[in-house]
Write a structure and sequence with these properties.
- The structure is a single chain.
- This protein is mostly helical.
- Helices cover 60% and strands 0% of the residues.
- The chain is built from 2 helices and no strands.
- It is rod-shaped, with a radius of gyration of 20 Å.
- The two termini are 27 Å apart.
Length: 84
Amino acid sequence: MAKTPKKKSEARSLRTYLGLSFIAAVFVGLFVFYGTGGVTQAEGAFQRTLIWSGLTFITSLVTIATLALTVKENPGDPNEPMLK
């Protein structure tokens, strides 16, 4: 009986990386927008919010991808003990 090929881990998918980075960018964007005056002083708040959100998105995406490269997948059977 042939073994079925392993499915790519859901934790290492591109969608996960982009989703986590997007959440971090929105979180920082909200802090920057309301921390710089929000709607009452909106003249420069939108530009600062976009800049900080973009920087956060790129930085968190690179950081998450780099940290994911450091983790080695376990090729063994999960039902067998690793140490014998």
